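Whiteboard transcription, Tuesday session. T.W. wrote the C-alpha cells on the left side:
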C-alpha cells in the first residue's frame, strides 16, 4: 500500500491540513464543532490527495527528467495510469461528498476551485507553458485555509480574503526558492519557471518583494482585528527574520544555499502562522 500513499504526496497533505485547521479556528474564535472540524480535515485532505495523484499522472514524463522526482511512483511505473486515474477520481469524489454533507457548499466550492486551478490550469497547461504558472497555481495552494474558514463560518468575508491573500503571497518566494536551488532540474525538464525564464537575479528581486508583501498581509490580520497581539509578534518576527536573511545574503555568490535557507524559513513561517491562528486567536485573545 506504500505506493498508493506516496502518490498522494503526504507531505503536501500534512502542510495543507495545518492550514485548514488554522483557517477553521480563525473563523470559529474558540467556539467550534469538533465533528465539523474532523469532516473538513478529512474532506480537504482527500481532495488535495486527489489533485496530487492527478498531478503525478500528468507529470510522469516530466518527472523522469528531474533528479528530485525521478523516483516518484508514476515515474517508475509502479502504478498503471488507468489505476492512478481511478484512484484519483475516487479520492476526489469522496472528499467532495464529505465536504458537501458534513460542512457546507461554500467550503466545497473553494475545494473545487483549488482542485480545478491545480489540476486543470496549472498541471495541464501553465506549468509547462508559462512563467506565470506559479502565480495562478498559488490560488490552489491558498484554498485550504479558506476551506477551513468557510466550513466554520459559513461565509466568505474579509478574514477569508486575507487568508487567501496571505497564502498566495507566501507561495511565491517559497516556490521561487525551490526553482533556484533546483534550477538544473527545471531547466532539464524545460519548465519555464521565473528563474529559468528570466534569470535568477530577477527571481531574487521578486522573492524579496513577495516576502515584504507576505509579512504586511499577515500583520493585517491583527490590524483588522482577526488576531491578537501574540499573533502579531510571532508572525511579525518570523516575517522580518525571513526578510533579513534574504537581504543579508542577497549578494553572496552561493545562490543555491541562499535559496535553500529561504525555503526552510518559508516552511517555518507558514507553519507558525497557521499554529498561531489555531491557538493564539482562540485561547489567548
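and on the right, the sequence the group agreed on:
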Amino acid at each position: 500500500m506504500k505506493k498508493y500513499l506516496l502518490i498522494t504526496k503526504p507531505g503536501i497533505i500534512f502542510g495543507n491540513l495545518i492550514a485548514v485547521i488554522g483557517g477553521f479556528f480563525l473563523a470559529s474564535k474558540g467556539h467550534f464543532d469538533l465533528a465539523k472540524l474532523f469532516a473538513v480535515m478529512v474532506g480537504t485532505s482527500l481532495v488535495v490527495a486527489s489533485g496530487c495523484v492527478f498531478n503525478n499522472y500528468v507529470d510522469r514524463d516530466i518527472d523522469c527528467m528531474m533528479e528530485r522526482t525521478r523516483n516518484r511512483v508514476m515515474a517508475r511505473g509502479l502504478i498503471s495510469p488507468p489505476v492512478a486515474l481511478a484512484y484519483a477520481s475516487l479520492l476526489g469524489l469522496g472528499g467532495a461528498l464529505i465536504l458537501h454533507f458534513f460542512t457546507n457548499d461554500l467550503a466545497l466550492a473553494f475545494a473545487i476551485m483549488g482542485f480545478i486551478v491545480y489540476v486543470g490550469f496549472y498541471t495541464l497547461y501553465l506549468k509547462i507553458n508559462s512563467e506565470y504558472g506559479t502565480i495562478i497555481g498559488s490560488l490552489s495552494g491558498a484554498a485550504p485555509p479558506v476551506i477551513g474558514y468557510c466550513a466554520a463560518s459559513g461565509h466568505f468575508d474579509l478574514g477569508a480574503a486575507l487568508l487567501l491573500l496571505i497564502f498566495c503571497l507566501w507561495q511565491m518566494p517559497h516556490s521561487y526558492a525551490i526553482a533556484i536551488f533546483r534550477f538544473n532540474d527545471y531547466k532539464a525538464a524545460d519548465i519555464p519557471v521565473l528563474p529559468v525564464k528570466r534569470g535568477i537575479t530577477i527571481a531574487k528581486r521578486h522573492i524579496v518583494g513577495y516576502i515584504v508583501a507576505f509579512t504586511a498581509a499577515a500583520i493585517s490580520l491583527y490590524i483588522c482585528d482577526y488576531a491578537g497581539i501574540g499573533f502579531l509578534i510571532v508572525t511579525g518576527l518570523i516575517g522580518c527574520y525571513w526578510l533579513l536573511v534574504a537581504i543579508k545574503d542577497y549578494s553572496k555568490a552561493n545562490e543555491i544555499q541562499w535559496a535553500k535557507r529561504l525555503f526552510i524559513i518559508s516552511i517555518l513561517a507558514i507553519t507558525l502562522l497557521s499554529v498561531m491562528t489555531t491557538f493564539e486567536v482562540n485561547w489567548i485573545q
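Someone added at the bottom: The CA atoms of residues 211 and 282 lie 26 Å apart.
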